[in-house]
Amino acid sequence: MTEVSNGKDIIKMINIEKIYKMGNSTFKALSDVNLTIAEGEYVAIVGPSGAGKSTLMNIIGCLDKPSRGEYVLDGINTNCNDNKLAEIRNKKIGFIFQNYNLLPKLNILENVELPLLYLGYPNNKSKEKVRGVIEKVGLSNHLKHKPSELSGGQMQRVAIARALVTDPQMILADEPTGALDSKTGKEVLKMLTDLNDEGNTIVMITHDMEIASHAKRIITVRDGKITSDNLNKREVGA
């Protein structure tokens, strides 16, 4: 968990472009993106399908590299080889995906523990840490359950626990309510708000302005460019 924002930049993007080759032609998915997100912020990146927000998310999440420009994540320049980029990703970012991305053959405890195993966390300490975050999301009584035995809301809670277990500098949530009914979706959004209130930096990607309205800052992407970047007055004044 990070501390409440003290002005430290978690994300700093300078003149980011992403260009894909398509046969003999090229397609510019992102163009001249400049973005700074500080520690402790809760930011929604919103835009219609094809706007470039998924490409932006992949670069923010160190799942892809820009074609041009500079991306600094928590003080580290991400212009590096793939192995180093994966190391940065595993240490700095906790992911929450629309479809949970849980391994079906593993139980809750094992799914949440996976990021710690990748980081070489001591086994005796990892179990204690995993149990703590599972308790935090209210699933202590389901440690041995596998994903197929859980509801959609419970699976997303497992995904949130997995995102938290490494104490990442940022939680990156991709359409976190997309596979949930409205009631369960509101519960997950409330959990994200609570996590941000505790000091966690959250970046959420969504196509839905109603979902985006739960964040404290809303960035709109269209045609590969940031077209607006505003504080959410409803949240700020709440």
UniProtKB/TrEMBL annotation:
Q: Which domain of life is it from?
A: Bacteria
Gene3D superfamilies, alphabetized: P-loop containing nucleotide triphosphate hydrolases
Identify one Gene Ontology CC term for this UniProt entry. Answer: membrane protein complex
- What positions does the domain ABC transporter occupy? 14-238
Q: Which GO molecular function terms does the record list? A: ATP binding; ATP hydrolysis activity; transmembrane transporter activity
Name the PROSITE patterns on file. ABC_TRANSPORTER_1 (PS00211), ABC_TRANSPORTER_2 (PS50893)
Provide this UniProt record's keywords sorted from A to Z: ATP-binding, Nucleotide-binding, Transport
| Family, similarity comment | Belongs to the ABC transporter superfamily.
Q: What is this protein called?
A: ABC-type antimicrobial peptide transport system, ATPase component
Provenance organism: Clostridium pasteurianum BC1
